[in-house]
Amino acid sequence: MTTFASGTDTLTRDALTVLQPGFIGTTAPDWLLRRLGEGLASVGLFGRNITSPGQLAALTAQLRAERDDVLVAIDEEGGDVTRLEVRTGSSFPGNHALGAVDDVDLTREVAYALGRRLAECGVNLNWAPSADVNSNPANPVIGVRSFGADPELVARHTAAYVTGLQSAGVAACTKHFPGHGDTEVDSHLALPRIDAEEAVLQDRDLAPFRAAITAGTRAVMSAHILVPALDPDRPATLSRRILTDLLRDELAYDGLIVTDGMEMRAIAGTYGIERGSVLAVAAGADAICVGGGLADDATVRRLRDALVAAVRSGELAEERLAEAAERVRALARWTASAAADGVGPHRPPVADIGLLAARRALKVTGEEGFTPLTEPPYVAALTPVANIAVGDETPWGVAAELLRLFPGTETGSFAGEAAGRAALAAAGPRRIVAVVRDEHRHPWMASALDALLEQRPDTIVVEMGVPQAASRGALHIATHGAARVCGRAAAEVIAGR
């Protein structure tokens, strides 16, 4: 596509302003700094961009040297989805653990502590929390990222999370509007469809978003899902009925609307990212998120030029693009003010709040007759394929924590129909700790547990996903998430600590 302008005219600046691109590396490349000078107002960070808090602080300072009010965004949900601690696992439990405790003050404190950590590193926009009601147990992409299956519980914890995060000076981005919980398809891979009636959607899926709006969420992220009761033709990200008529007009939301990643197959595989970006802005989106997979200057130029061409052809109103760009700048002003003046009380987070929350979230079955381990066990991790939002680079489980408590602990990862037999052979005479994740969604995993418990009824089972399957094993621990602190909390119970 032909480049229409050098980056200095108003139209091109607005087109750059609405983009939230990613990049490769742990320092900002020259092309990104140049685009910030031309009007780009946001940058998205991923695990590949982060090695330590000090490095991240230096990176955000580098970005602000080029543009002092730049929005630096990250997908830091805590729990299973972490970018700050992508190589170690999170210090904070995720939403499902917080929902299991059901203490809104705790949720607020965890979000505040997480926000403080982000703010100290120079990050000022968090693509969190997930406000999805996990109403479909077969959901492959939400699961423990949701506070739970009860709309009222999800609503009150979403509001608490928004309040806690923003009191630390970090803008919340509540997602995935109008609700991704009742899907059986991952929108990273294809376009999901929710066939619920509008009355159900109003009572169930929209309740947490109403709560987030009341709590003052600064941003809302759209979902790449088709909801025929709301719009039979366009997925939510591209739907004026959903983004403008419903979110703006009916729910009276006036903050920033951000799209989910445009390179996800639900959009890229159906409309393409250029066409999809134009349709999203026309529908009411203000910021185009891209960069999880496509993270280069060519992508930024393609999307910028597609928006400029759409305005010049009359397909996209120039006023709509200008309005979107102004909303981005307005959020940038809020974050700059929050950084300069402070938002809410200046107080240190509660010490070890993440671990305290993870301990409270445990549901332990069979503890009465259980004798804590005294010898190094064998940890058999029955490992499913990780969804793309979580990624496969973040470690999970209890093996590392048990190794710390019991030097000599051994571990192995198993999957498929032969997983149970293979784990038994590998464990030998050692006590087995079987670690599962969403047993109810994986028949092979349930069969593997059957085989383990038949031969070794003293096997300890740790469920680190949604605990939908029946509790079984000599001891059953449901952690409600696979964050590092969840593994530590479970290991403490196994060791009787």
Layout of strands and helices, then pairs:
Elements: H1 10-17, E1 19-20, H2 30-38, E2 42-45, H3 53-66, E3 71-74, H4 95-101, H5 104-120, E4 125-126, H6 151-167, E5 171-177, H7 198-205, H8 207-214, E6 219-222, H9 240-250, E7 256-258, H10 265-268, H11 273-283, E8 288-289, H12 297-313, H13 318-341, H14 353-361, E9 363-365, E10 378-382, H15 399-405, E11 410-414, H16 419-427, E12 432-436, H17 443-455, E13 460-463, E14 475-478, H18 484-494
Parallel strand pairs: 1-8, 2-3, 3-4, 4-5, 5-6, 6-7, 10-11, 10-12, 12-13, 13-14
Antiparallel strand pairs: 9-14
Helix pairs in contact: 1-12, 1-13, 4-14, 5-6, 6-8, 11-12, 14-18, 15-18, 16-17
Please, could you describe this protein's structure?
This protein is α/β, with parallel strands linked by helices and 497 residues long. Helices cover 41% and strands 11% of the residues. It is built from 18 helices and 14 strands. The chain has helices at 10-17, 30-38, 53-66, 95-101, 104-120, 151-167, 198-205, 207-214, 240-250, 265-268, 273-283, 297-313, 318-341, 353-361, 399-405, 419-427, 443-455, 484-494, and strands at 19-20, 42-45, 71-74, 125-126, 171-177, 219-222, 256-258, 288-289, 363-365, 378-382, 410-414, 432-436, 460-463, 475-478. The strands form three sheets. It has a six-stranded parallel sheet with strand order 2-3-4-5-6-7, sandwiched between helices. Helix 6 (151-167) links the parallel strand 4 (125-126) and strand 5 (171-177). Helix 1 packs across helix 13 (318-341), helix 4 (95-101) crosses helix 14 (353-361) and helix 14 crosses helix 18. The chain is globular and about 70 Å long. The N and C termini lie far apart (63 Å). The model is unreliable at 1-7 (pLDDT under 50).
